[in-house]
Specification:
The protein has 264 residues and is mainly beta. It is built from 1 helix and 23 strands. Strands 14, 15, 16, 17, 18, 19, 20, 21, 22 and 23 form a 10-stranded antiparallel sheet that branches. It has a 5-stranded mixed sheet with strand order 3-9-8-5-6, with helices on one face.
Length: 264
């Protein structure tokens, strides 16, 4: 389905099952039984910021039950619908646990949702919402000996600017995610998510934006996810609904979704 990552006050979502019981006087009384629980450590995050989601599921779940990150506007209930639009996910190896996710680059309203299985018969078990706000753009001040010029627009170089989330080519045909944080002699300085850094030329940078389906065709050159956080040079060979079959630069092949590709 997918491969492989928000809050100031605690946000909690729980599903309650209400049954009937008897009191001492022979009448009916409501009995509440907590079935599922989700919480996040923030209710609002900045694009690219880490967010922690904790869950506890009382229901029996399949081995391929999963927790996904989807836009809030996505219709609730169906696993198949959530699977088509998720931006990140983790499989639930246990019925209780927590995961750390990276907030999407695109600001807006998002949900964490738990699905009972990774099949078309899977159903949504729980959800919790959060907000993603835009990242502040760095606007440095340029000082000269005669005057001071305040730069009010972000530094732009061939379509890239300081504050962009990008994939940079760390080695031949191998790309990792990071952030442009300054200008350097060879182009733009990238701080990778894993702590490494490099001065990248424009040809070694790709904007970290999930492409739309209309922009991907057979023959489109992309970088595509394979294992972990690394993306590799690839070409789209065929398209079947939401699945894209790609051939990697080394001859290996695989199926990916839109959020597992970036356009070269």
């Amino acid at each position: 389905m997918k491969k492989n990552i928000l809050f100031g006050s605690l946000a909690i979502f729980s599903i309650l099952f209400v049954g009937a019981g008897c009191n001492l006087f022979g009448g009916e009384e409501e009995v509440s039984v907590q079935k599922s629980f989700m919480s996040t450590d923030k209710t609002s995050v900045v694009s690219g910021e880490e967010i922690l989601v904790t869950y506890s599921i009382a229901e029996e779940i399949a081995d391929d039950a999963w927790l996904g990150l989807v836009p809030s506007e996505t219709a609730h209930g169906s696993e198949e619908i959530g699977d088509a639009v998720d931006t990140d996910y983790e499989y639930l190896e246990m019925k209780d646990g927590s995961f750390s996710f990276t907030a999407p680059d695109l600001p807006g309203e998002y949900d964490f949702r738990i699905y009972s299985s990774d099949t078309e018969n899977g159903v949504e078990l729980a959800s919790i919402s959060f907000t993603v706000t835009p990242r502040e753009v760095i606007t440095p001040v340029l000082e000269t000996t005669s005057t001071e010029l305040n730069i009010t627009e972000p530094i732009i170089l061939d379509g890239f600017f300081i504050g962009n989330r990008v994939y940079a080519e760390w080695s031949d045909s191998t790309w990792y995610p990071g952030l442009i944080d300054s200008v350097c002699d060879g182009g733009l300085h990238v701080a990778f998510d894993d702590g490494d850094e490099m001065c990248a030329s424009i040809s070694e940078l790709v904007i970290d934006t999930t492409p739309g389906s209309a922009s991907i065709n057979v023959g489109t050159m992309v970088i595509a996810e394979w294992i972990g956080t690394a993306f590799y040079d690839a070409e789209v060979k065929s398209i079947d609904a939401n699945n894209y079959h790609v051939e990697y630069y080394d001859g290996m092949e695989g199926d990916v979704t839109l959020n597992q590709m970036r356009i070269r």
